From TrEMBL:
InterPro entries: Acyl_CoA_acyltransferase, Bact_Acetyltransf, GNAT_dom. GO terms for molecular function: acyltransferase activity, transferring groups other than amino-acyl groups. SUPFAM superfamilies: Acyl-CoA N-acyltransferases (Nat) (SSF55729). Gene3D superfamilies: 3.40.630.30. Keywords: Acyltransferase, Transferase. It holds the Pfam family Acetyltransf_1. It comes from Kribbella voronezhensis. Residues 1-166 form the N-acetyltransferase domain. The lineage of its organism: Bacteria, Bacillati, Actinomycetota, Actinomycetes, Propionibacteriales. This is L-amino acid N-acyltransferase YncA. The keyword Transferase applies.
Amino acid sequence: MIVRRLGREDAAQYRQFRLRALRDSPSAFTSTYEEEVEKPLQFTIDRLLSRGRPKDVTLGALDEDGQLLGIAGMTIEPRRQVQHKATLFGMAVAPAAAGRGIGKTLVTAIAEHGATEGLLQIGLTVTEGNERAERLYRSCGFQEWGREPQAVIVGRQPVVKIHMLRFL
C-alpha cells in the first residue's frame, strides 16, 4: 500500500469512491450523495488540485494495482488569525479493506502534512455512535472537546456530531 497526494489522474476513481461512501454511510458526512453526484468531474479535479488553497491536501491509500483503499482530506483555515488550524474531512476506507490499519495510516499522514505546514492543531467531527471511527481518532491522538446536537439532519433524523481535536 502507498499513501500519496491525489491529483487529476485520480479524479474519476476518487469521485466514485467518495460517492460510494456518501451513499453507504450518509450520517458520516456533511455532504450528501444527491448533492455530490450532480457535480461535474471538474469539481473533483479542482478539489484534488486544491485550487486557490495550495496547502490543502487530499490523500489516498492505494493498493499495488493503483486502486483506492481509503481517502482523507485536510483543509487549512484561510483567515489569518486561524491559519494555525485545519480540519480533517472526507475520511473513508473501503469496507473490504477495513481493519487493515488504512485509516490510521491516512490520519497519521494528514497529521504529518499538517505539522510540515506549521499547523498547531487539526480538528474533525465524527458521528455519535460510529464507535469504530471514534476509536481510530482517539488512537491517533484526537480528544473530544464537545458534542453538537442536530449537527446534521439525515432524512428527518437529527444526528449528533462529536468534535475532536489533536494538537500537533
